[in-house]
Here is the input.
Amino acid sequence: MPALVLLGAQWGDEGKGKATDLLGGSVDYVVRYQGGNNAGHTVVVGDQKYALHLLPSGILTPECTPVIGNGVVVDPSVLFSELNGLNERGVDTSKLLISGNAHIITPYNVTVDKVTERFLGKRKIGTTGRGIGPTYADKINRVGIRIQDLYDESILTQKVEAALEVKNQLLTKLYNRRAIEAGQVVEELLGYADRLKPYVADTVLILNQALEQDKVVLFEGGQGTLLDIDHGTYPFVTSSNPTAGGACTGSGVGPTKISRVIGILKAYTTRVGSGPFPTELLDEDGEALRRIGGERGVTTGRDRRCGWFDAVIARYATRVNGLTDFFLTKLDVLTGWEEIPVCVAYEIDGKRVEELPYSQTDFHHAKPIYENLPGWSEDITKAKSFSDLPKNAQAYVKALEDMSGAQISAIGVGPGRDETIEINSFI
Ligand code: GDP
Ligand code: IMO
Ligand code: MG
Here is the structure.
């Protein structure tokens, strides 16, 4: 069973970095397939804490080859500062591979992201401001710049000029900003070419050959199912496909090679940025989840919106990703509540609805229907097996499993690598 996908089952920040790092020791390749440095994946190894944005979490495991696939958007300045930061801490990053087909986040894409959000005002998406949406827009509009373009100055210049022709009209005439000079952009991009060169590779060929040799490949999703451009809460989404299908298009590995799809699922729910969130808590319980769970964005430092677990969303994630397993994270954060409400269905315009409505208007009107599950007060952070958990914590996990449609194969009881209960092995 060589290829596994690990992805966010909610609105991101479920603990994908920790889960990827945990499996890193048993896999040969860890591949990011979409998104860019809008991600913030935290990995805690012993007393060391790492925040990864663009690099796959497998970079912290020496035996593992980290890969940035064709579906990722790469900001070279961020890439180098992340690599430098890791090198300074003694992490060897020399095995990194980057697809020559991955698109580059140019300085003008970052500018357009920021001015567009400002222009939208109250209707803003609450993006991370990292240029993600505009870069994917350029890719789809066929005016994007790819990593391989850095190695042909004449093509690069033509492409940057073409992209800026329209953007400068927008920037100067609509947004009242200064025009961006193509020559300067080309010069900056060419400045990255030499240092990038050793990493650039035919990652499609390498990954498929590795799978033929029965090597284990792990795809690490950024963001989450409900932030997916097709399957998420559009328009309050990111501009890529974090869902399982994205692992194929974003890497060039076919779906027949994928044997497990693991959804990372927080024991409650969080969201950053704008958009509907039926179980959001604007009271002291929400404040307590944020405080105890340390729910502050790794990328933008924004407070995360917090709420109870939503089983409707978990079922939806199982369906659109074909999940085989869940990795339930942050169960320890729920310790101390006498009762824990879990959303089992929605009420929409007076009707009980069991599944996620496809209509945005309906979803905006969805009110959670809660079932209260008994809580526990014992410290669970030292639990090593399912039977070490208090009875009520076991019942909470079982109830979530029954409602969510896939087996829970691991449980996080703390941020560290070893603060995990493994139930079914993934590899
Ligand atoms: P990602 O974007 O999905 O990788 O998740 P983030 O790193 O943005 O946010 C998850 C946060 O929860 C990080 O601070 C992790 O260190 C932390 N974390 C992960 N799993 C657990 C867990 O089981 N318990 C606790 N208490 N923290 C966890
Ligand atoms: P990880 O991988 C949580 C959210 C932003 C915004 C929307 C669009 O750490 O789970 P974008 O900059 O992507 O155009 O912003 O998506 N968002 C995330 N929320 N975790 C993330 O990544 C996110 N990446 C983007 O807050 O609402
Ligand atoms: Mg995150």
About this structure: The CA atoms of residues 14 and 371 lie 22 Å apart. The mean pLDDT is 97. Residues 8, 12-18, 40-42, 44, 294, 298, 329-330, 332-333, 412-415 surround guanosine-5'-diphosphate (ligand 1) (CB under 6 Å).
